[in-house]
Amino acid sequence: MNDGRHAHGPAERPSREPSLARNVLAAWTGYVLVAVSGFVLPRLIDRHGSREAVGLWDYGWSLTFYVQLLSIGVGSAVNRYVARHRANADWDSLNAIVNSCLALMCASFAIGLVGIATVALFLPRLVADLGGEAILTGRWTIMLLGATAALKLPFSVFNGVIQGFERLDLLNLSRGVRDIILMFLMIGLLLMGYGLVCLATVILAAEVGASVAKIITSRRVCPHLRVRPRYVRWSVLREVAAFGGHTIVYNVARIGLYQGNSMLVAYFLGTGPLAIYSRQRVLVMQVRAFLNQYAQVFVPRSSALHAKGETGALADLVVRGTRYGLFATLPMAAVMLVLGGPVVRLWMGPDYEAPWILAILVLGHLLSMPQQHLYMIMLGMGQHSRLSLAEPIGSIFSLLAAVVALGLFGWGPTGAAIAVALPVTVTGGVIAPLLACRVLRISPRDYVRRVGLLPFVLVLPFAAALLAGRWWAGDDAMRAVVAGMGPGSVILAVVYWKWAIPASMRERIRGLVSRGRGRSAEPAWGSGVAIAAQGLGGGHGAARDAETSTGANAG
């Protein structure tokens, strides 16, 4: 790409470095809003519709993930190159990357619409026990949700511009406003008796409004931005394809594993069993997404350490990351294993309880979730190719196992859960640490020894409190959750404060609290985020959070 500095106006003066705390907190706010709506809406759809409607809604959203694969890592490429050209005030190259990627994503938008229309046409053959009015409702729902996902593709380029200027606060502010309005509007429509087609229409309209906001925000953060066909360049497209191609295989495999598994459940069993299965999977995926937010900070840190040749610091980062990943994962896993049934009963009702399915999924992810940072570290080092190749192998095995379990043995959703749990355990829980240890020349035995048993020991009092509350409450779901989580949370906080949090960090938190009353909220929160990031990073500073972990950000 052109390295010259061609500007449409005077070069911008250096500005103050964007706040890490502001970006991280903004990203977490957006995540919480999405998580809340993901729990509320299925319950309302079930109450004012049917279990089949919930399954159809899940099926439609599963298809949108495949449409988002057409982003082929372009969003992260724009993010990276915009930041580089911004630092050099090279506005000509910046416009070249934006316009070339925009042209590419417009083509992906058209392909996505054609693909989603094809699925809608053949819907009766793809979903078991679907007939009558449900076919028409399903087709319109799929088309509208698919159009929303396709619309995100070209506008993900403007996402990349905003991220490249490190203004995640503005990006998440617009998303947060959209999500709040959308959530309350959809709740109101469901309470008034409107169905899936109306909900999908509102989502599409909200995405149109959000897309316009992205363009306006991009122009504000980058006054030099120009959208012109003359900036589209073939050399830029080749460079973007080379950059995004390294991560697309990993993303395709991950999406294929989870969403393909759900589609097979719908094909063999129908939308009703899919709704039950999906509710258990959603709980596990929320925990996985939560931990993935932390894993992202390891990419720039590992890249910097690798560039300096600090192999020992990288090895320390791997070990500490796993230890803190276990500190975060094990309590949430204990809650799902002990109180998963009551939680689902309170959330969706007794008809959606499937404790065995939830337990299989939780145990299958127990090793992989706290080690998600290993892929990020290898990605930062440029050593992620082998793990990226291991993912599609695991996904293919999972889909074949699901076909056998569902179609041949008739194991139902339990078989689908087993088909997911096994490859996730092998790829993320075994292969990932082995490859990381090999790259960094760490003995696997030494890796396990240095991680230690402390995270498992410290979670035992919390798990005991959950079990005691569950036993005392009997069949009362609300009493079980309150009796278990109340005392258990206090015990966990005391235990983690004394043994999980380093002494230096405790002293800093005490100082932060003592000074917090006389300071504004933002500096206090910022110091807290920095302390948490320091603990995860093994004493190293945390880097800027990104929208997605591997580049498949489609808006």
Task: Put the structure in a nutshell.
The protein has helices spanning 20-48, 51-68, 74-87, 91-121, 123-126, 133-164, 168-191, 196-221, 234-269, 271-295, 298-307, 311-348, 355-365, 372-381, 385-408, 413-440, 444-451, 454-458, 460-473, 477-500, 503-516, 521-536. The protein has 555 residues and is mainly α.
Which SSEs are present, and which pair or pack?
Elements: H1 20-48, H2 51-68, H3 74-87, H4 91-121, H5 123-126, H6 133-164, H7 168-191, H8 196-221, H9 234-269, H10 271-295, H11 298-307, H12 311-348, H13 355-365, H14 372-381, H15 385-408, H16 413-440, H17 444-451, H18 454-458, H19 460-473, H20 477-500, H21 503-516, H22 521-536
Query: Which regions contain 5 or more consecutive residues with pLDDT less than 50?
Result: 1-21, 520-555
Shape: globular
Radius of gyration: 24 Å
Number of domains: 4
- Give the DSSP E fraction (strand runs of 2 or more residues): under 5%
Q: Helix/strand/pairing class, anyone? A: mainly alpha
pLDDT average, as an integer? Answer: 80
Major sheet: none
- Tally of strands: 0
Order of helices and strands: HHHHHHHHHHHHHHHHHHHHHH
- Report how far the terminal alpha carbons are from each other: 25 Å
Count up the helices: 22
**Helical content (DSSP H or I, runs of 4+):** over 70%
